[in-house]
């Protein structure tokens, strides 16, 4: 072995495979959620209606002014959620494909990281801001025994957060984020 550093390309690293796998898992999950909401529209439509109407909360008069009782607005919110889920799923599917191509080609992982980040942040916005903050606190979903999605939202935030951390670990997208290299 010489004293000089040489660089050779390697086909993948554990971190890039982990980032690709986690991105793929989240993509599959949110795609199935969106598919379920589209094909079984009524089930979660009722969930959204009850949360927004606040009709299964403690009905504290100081909070009930926040309730949205218009079915049109409730359904518009639900359609918005489904559209966001679908867009998030498509973004994460593209990110998964970019990870696979980047690992195979040994470059282009920076783009995979960028698209993964966008999709994972979209998921965090939906479940963190949308369900935990707005649904849980603003619409007092935590008070409902029947229509409380905080536990499921927390699982989603946790999964997306862990995936986002792995995607951003040093080396997940290779040194300088462009290709996978190792020093000999």
TrEMBL record:
Annotated Pfam families: DUF2165 (PF09933)
Keyword tags: Membrane, Transmembrane, Transmembrane helix
Bilayer-spanning residue ranges: 12-35, 76-102, 114-134
Domain of life: Bacteria
InterPro entries: DUF2165_transmembrane
Descriptive protein name: DUF2165 domain-containing protein
Organism encoding this protein: Streptomyces nigrescens
């Amino acid at each position: 072995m010489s004293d000089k550093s040489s660089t050779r390309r390697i086909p993948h690293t554990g971190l890039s495979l982990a980032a690709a796998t986690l991105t793929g898992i989240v993509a599959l999950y949110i795609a199935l959620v969106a598919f379920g909401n589209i094909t079984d529209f009524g089930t979660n439509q009722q969930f959204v209606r009850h949360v927004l109407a606040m009709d299964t909360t403690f009905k504290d008069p100081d909070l009930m002014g926040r309730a949205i009782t218009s079915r049109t607005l409730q359904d518009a919110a639900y359609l918005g959620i489904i559209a966001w889920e679908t867009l998030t799923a498509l973004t994460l599917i593209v990110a998964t494909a970019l990870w696979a191509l980047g690992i195979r080609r040994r470059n282009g992982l920076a783009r995979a990281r960028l698209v993964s980040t966008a999709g994972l942040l979209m998921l965090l916005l939906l479940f963190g801001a949308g369900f935990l903050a707005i649904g849980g606190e603003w619409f007092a979903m935590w008070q409902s025994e029947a229509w409380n999605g905080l536990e499921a939202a927390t699982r989603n935030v946790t999964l997306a957060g862990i995936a986002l951390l792995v995607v951003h670990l040093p080396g997940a997208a290779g040194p300088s984020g462009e290709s996978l290299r190792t020093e000999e």
